[in-house]
Design a protein that fits this description.
Strand order of the largest sheet of chain B: 6-7-8-3-9-10
Radius of gyration of chain B: 19 Å
Strand content of chain A: under 5%
Structural class of chain A: mainly alpha
Number of helices of chain B: 12
Largest sheet of chain B: 6 strands, mixed
Helix content of chain B: 40-55%
Largest interface: A-B, 44 and 54 residues
Shape of chain A: globular
Distance between the termini of chain A: 15 Å
Number of helices of chain A: 15
Strand order of the largest sheet of chain A: 1-2
Oligomer: heterodimer
Distance between the termini of chain B: 33 Å
Strand content of chain B: 15-25%
Amino acid sequence: MTAVTPEVGGTAGGSSAGGPAAGPPGTRGTGVRVWPPLGLAAVVAALLLVWVGSNGYRQDLGVLAATYALIALGMYVPFVMAGSLSLAYSAYAGIGAYAVGIVSRDTGWPLWVGWLAAPLVSAALAVVLGLATRRLSGFYLGAVTLLFATAFETWLVDADGITDGSRGIGGIRNLSVFGWSPDRSQQLIMATVLVLAVAFALDRLRQSPWGVLVRTMREVPAVVEATGVRVPVLNLVALGIGAGIASLGGCLFASFVRGVTPETFTVNIVFLAIFMPLIGGVGTPWGAVVGALVVVELTLNFPAFSDSGTLVLSLGVLVILLVAPRGLLGYLDALRNRLAAGPLTGLLPRSSPGSSSPAGRSSDG
Amino acid sequence: MADRVSDRPLLEGRGLVKRYGGVVAVNSADIVLSGGEILGLVGPNGAGKTTLVDLVSGIQAADGGTLTLAGRPLGGPPSRRARAGLARTFQYPQLALDLTVRQNLALGRTARRNGGPLAMLRSALAGVVGSAPAEDEAAVEAIAREVRVGDIDRRCRDLTLGEQRLVEVARALIQDPLVMLLDEPFAGADANGVAGISEAIRDVRARGHGVILVDHNVDLVASLVDRIMLLDQGRVVFDGDPVACLRSEEMQRVYFGTRAGGGAAGGAAADPTAAGGAAKGGAADGT
């Protein structure tokens, strides 16, 4: 897989016809999204929450999916947008989980102190790891971060005084917001809202001038450098943002499960997370969320394959990449455009003059 | 235009050297550009034109020599030099092909707000909570019209090579550079492209800033520039008036391999157009 692969066919899945970096409203394109991603995602999320109900197992699945989604969203900015493959996201999630655990065990502070500290620590760590490999090719970033992630797992077991060793930290206090302690259902709703908010923010970020800058850096770094932006620094910033978001996944998981052990976040999760954007579609951060749901469904909620979930997942990934190289959302987007270009074309006036037609987008990739 | 030329050079490079192993690609070249001046850089393939532009813009590190821009030392990575006032295009157009022309052009403005790590974080946050600055949008549209880019909502992948070069020139122009370095912008350009690029060059000069124009097409260069530098095997062999350059012995020697003096000198004076024609043919083959 070349670095260019992830973003090819970039306008998949709900990028508006008005397009990224669209200016002030009205200057170009009414750009109305036929499927407003946030609205659609909220509806889907609400349906899922109804399905979960008060079933404890499904609540666990839901929080796990939200955790995966945050890790995959964390990888989205550096990996999909900037083209930097770091593999230390299990460690960043671990930092999130242990930050919450340590705050609960050692202090009387509210848990959200851990939620604030973990992203900062993770981002700083990501910057240090990125700095260490900044003069080397992207391969070494992957190698060094992978090494770090495995070493971090070992350290969690060894550093008994800090992490309680292989027992991990249990009995984490309940999350409490100004005296109000949400129950598990309410916590799952909050987790869902958090994922929706982060995905929505990243979707905006992707299409903002900054997002365009980062995506340009992946394709033609010499240009970004020649226009006055220091490429290695921008890369570090992208890595830091990604690490911070991923560590929120760890905070979420530990707060809900009220415990964490060294086995909670292993390197395996990184290899799952890499494929989440590809499964869902790299053209939008929402693809990472869809990918996380698919992964949880295939690996944990498929009774027929309970033990071979990962095998099923890898086959599923292959099938998806063959049938829908732009991911599920990209596939749906193309399907929708094909339908719109069909007999109903006249009935669905959709793009404003001047904006490229959605049909044109479906032909790419 | 001449009245805008200040006494102090805008860009001054002295004794620039670049070696690749045993090959000296640029051999103690001097390059001086005044405000409001357009300098043509010509020479056969391998003469060192692009290398010289790379040394100035910082894409390649020089093995020797000094550079100043507006009296200040010019050095460091390309991004620092860009912020000091350099903008350039590339011999092979470098565009984010999956993005639109509009997005590629806006880069020239976005870059200003991403000068360091904190600025980048601020800019990312602004991207989440705010919208693209209206003045950027206006600048993109104005420059696109001026340089005749056409529909800017096309994806760059769908552009011809000539159109891609035009977009590159427009992106450089949007940076409002003190010195704009154009590396063979006319290769593959049609009449519209030539007009658009020429307009961009005149625009920079009208602001009292400078342009360095690299091209094979000596005729076209001579018609646009105030001065020509002729490079051969890494050395500057002629630096002066364009018409005089076309008629010079060095021109004959470099492009046709004829020895200076004797009957060749007469030929040199007689057919500057032939030189341009030959160069033009070469450029066409290359595209």
